[in-house]
Amino acid sequence: MPEKKIRVLIAKPGLDGHDRGAKVIARALRDAGMEVIYTGLRQTPEMIASAAVQEDVNVIGLSILSGAHNTICPQIMKLLHEKGMDDVTVLVGGIIPEADIPALKQAGIAGIFLPGTSTQAIVDFIQKKHAA
Amino acid sequence: MSDQTKPKSPAAVAPLSPARNVSPEEKSWEMNTLAFALAKSPERQKEFTTLSGHPIRRLYTEADLSNWDPKTQLAHPGEPPYTRGIHATMHRGRLWTMRQFAGFGTAENTNERFRYLLTHGQTGLSTAFDLPTLMGYDSDHPLSEGEVGKCGVAISSLADMEVLFDQIPLGEVTTSMTINSPAPVIWAMYLAVAEKQGADWKKISGTLQNDILKEYIAQKEYIYPPEPSMRLVVDTFEFAVKHTPKFNPISISGYHIREAGSTAIQELAFTLRDGMEYIEWAVRRGMQIDDFAPQLSFFFNAHSDFFEEIAKYRAARRIWYQAMTERYGAKSPRSWALRFHTQTAGCSLTAQQPFNNVVRTALQALSAVLGGTQSLHTNSLDEAWALPTEFAATIALRTQQIIAHETGVTNTVDPLGGSYFVEALTSEVEAGAWDYIRKIDAMGGMVAAIERSYPQREIAEASYRYQQALDKKEKIMVGVNDFISEEKPLEILQIDETVAHRQAARLSRLRAERSQDAVDRTLLALKKAAESYNKPVSSSSNGHLSHENLMPHIYDAVKAYATLGEICDAMRVVFGTYEETAVT
What we know:
Chain A is an alpha/beta fold. In chain A, 41% of the residues lie in helices and 18% in strands. Chain A has a five-stranded parallel sheet, with helices on both faces. Chain B folds into two domains: 70-471, Methylmalonyl-CoA mutase (TIM Barrel), CATH 3.20.20.240; 500-575, no CATH class. A nine-stranded parallel sheet of chain B has the order 5-4-3-2-1-9-8-7-6.
């Protein structure tokens, strides 16, 4: 029987349109055998949480480069909790100052990937988390 | 498309040495010296390529230039096809403008940074706006939450703009403004401040980025659909020709295309094809090519592959000259010469071992100078982490001053001209760009190509290929996938939410104090004029649509202190907004 694919939502919250990272990760995860849904640009926390429920994903990858992570991430985590999505693994990739990392982890972000991370490192992280 | 604007097929660029006609001396070298050396120790790699993956030969000789005609392809500086630069004396006559992009927090914060840079020898200003401003939202809009003042300065009304340029004489300083979809509004604010300072519009100089096509292609900060967006761009051309003859109403930008992951050839091709698209739309409006083309400017990336970048700038000038003369029949040499600004590659900077970024930036800046740039921004070492601190921004500016005053590279014009390698690579990059340009012509132009996601897909492919090459260590980034070492965190600039609170307070004060009647009246007039965009004009119009220029209406609304968000909303109601089909 074929293994159930890990379902990932790649989302680009906030007003920023720099989507190079989000697209590269979406494709790398797809190439690694995951089911990837890309939300497109300028998604509000509400849109992202709803899409996560609707698509029944295991993982959400947020791409944030604009410095809005301290505002956006806690909002998304709160909405996911309200929707009973506490099991979903939420990852953030982008430009995140090291000083902000503890608070984001505290808010429930499972992994934070800074510039220069290889796509394989992210694939490995997800696969380890979701090993059958 | 009328016959007048229909691109003629460009003269084919002769492929360089399809079969290299090797001299007996070179043959002898290959068979003796080279064969011996290779037998003793093979080369480090099987193939050598540029950062963009373009193949590079071991050695370039006269055999690589057998189809190359120095009279027509190189010529002399200040003369067509401008391969060697657009001015006869280039940087001997006048150095490039050192124009550091800056903007963060409130208008007060950025005004202070501007004045700091000017007192430290910077020669032009360049304004970075925050994301809400770039998207045409006021600082107190719900979607602005968390973004105010973060990636640039927050500007929501003329009141903010007055603070931004306080004590900066706009009659003397040239200012570049990185703003696209809301460009007409921000420009109107700038012109209003200039007027208030008593500066003569006929003399003020600067550059509006205003390049919406590359937004759809790469940076994605768009508001309206392509059609009304393009008309707004042409409105600014008309306005600039009439009122501000020294102001560049557009900076046709490859920078963001490259940052999105394109190759050098894609950057060049898509940017120049964007330029041609603007020309075709303006000519269709009835503008005369030589009236507006001299006010068009360009903006390229300076990435890390030294010679590939230099070849790109040289090829850019040659292609533009050919397009302007052969396709569009421009008669004025001022229309033929491609002027450009350069910024070093933000995407080449590493968060790891950030002080190495000073070295990267210096080398990239050197390629821009050797490529004949008119203006340059050098990135700061901390920009993979945040907006630059004053410390980092100062080193970046000093880097340009060192190149200008210590290295001696400005002593002669185009020192690389005639190099077998540089000339061959210039011609290859040129030919590669024309291939793309012709493909886009065949699709019906750039707007049509964007609508079918062609450039977006090409860039996504190139960017993924590059990431794979990094992951496999086929390409090395020092400190990232090799030469890794432990390091201490860097001190960076942090923008907190007090900026947003101060902006919100200022906006509510503004809304309370201004004349609401004047705001309503001017916004209504703007809306009405925008609606006329879609109405065909009288029978004599030959099917053309009405094109009442919106700039005067936008200017009136700005002067009445209507906010950026209100003005953009007035047009959103009429034009609608654009959603892209995401390509992954």
